[in-house]
Amino acid sequence: MSSNAKLLSVEALLVDVPTIRPHRLSVATMNHQTLVLVRIESDDGIVGWGEGTTIGGLAYGEESPESIKVNIDSYFAPLLVGAAAGDVAWLMATLDDRIQGNRFARCAVETALYDAQARRLGVPLGDLFGGRVRDSIPVAWTLASGDTARDIAEAERVLDLRRHNIFKLKIGLRPVKDDVRHVAAIKRALGDRASVRIDANQAWTVTQALEGMTMLAAAGVDMVEQPIAAHDKAGLQRLTQANILPVMADEALHGPHDAFTVAKMQAADIFAVKINQSGGLIGAAQVAAIAKAANIDLYGGTMLEGAVGTLASAHLFSTFHELAWGTELFGPLLLTEEILREPLEYRDFALAIPRRPGLGIDIDEEKLARLRRDR
Q1: 7-122+364-371 — its CATH code?
Q2: Strand ranges, E, within 159-265
Q3: What are the pLDDT digits (tens) for 134-169?
Q4: Which residue in 6, 69, 168, 170 is the catalytic one?
Q5: Domain covering 128-352, topology
Q6: CA-CA distance, 304 to 138, in Å (whole number)?
Q7: Whether residue 170 lies in the annotated active site
């Protein structure tokens, strides 16, 4: 196998997959997910995969699936094709010099390059980031149908399957007291068998958040995620210092710069680390390092990616010495179609992390070809 391999192609694919049920957030209701996958191939025969999936078109952030694909095809690929495939740091530095922003597109490309390089070296992807400290990671399940009875039944089912015992509830579409009643009923039904957390996806004002958090704490909820607008770091600081419930920053963290600001302000108790939101695996590792230095707990977040982004995240999170609040890498379980030859292994409330080279997965390219939007 040549150590001087050159990149032959960089291809971005849009793959539309229905979800198993409507997934309701304060910013959008999802009935399908558009996976944004990147496939790179080198002249040594190595293929690497990456993912830059986002949520709700432009409802969640400034990159859409369509813009991610266009920018990778038009701007990223011409800078990469023909370059040395194994020089990942140099390639990403070149992109940094020539391309502004585009965190999700950057993550997809970086992941594909690292997947290919790990395959080339014959090691799991996590070995490129220091090596794992765990072979599996706990995974939360998000209850987001909006219907209390349905959410309880769904939680009971996955508890019985020993698939999840951590539940995050998406709220923010209804008045605060109505949302709290919904959450409290679910917590009463599950009792001590499960941890219940909430995510308002920026839907509340600071005043509403203070009111809601007080009632949620009384109901037995364990944590609140990004209850107010991402730009309002002073408001997030106020909620954290109120010490009602642990506060997790999510949308407020667009990479290491934001992480440093939030940490300096002591504006969160927990960081939701997301590889796409951080601009890639390196950026996410830096966010985690800032959290550790500031004594802020870690949580492994998701953009509801499919198997590629989920396992890329899992490999990185497996290298974190402490992962106090677990993860929510359940994205593939929300989809009705499988793109792998062998599905990911969820058991005993956790996701098992493969030890095979790279991401450790085999993409079913025939099935993927049928699901591609352009086919």
Answers
A1: 3.30.390.10
A2: 166-170, 195-199, 223-225, 247-249
A3: 999 999 999 988 899 999 999 999 999 999 999 999
A4: 170
A5: TIM Barrel (3.20.20)
A6: 16
A7: yes
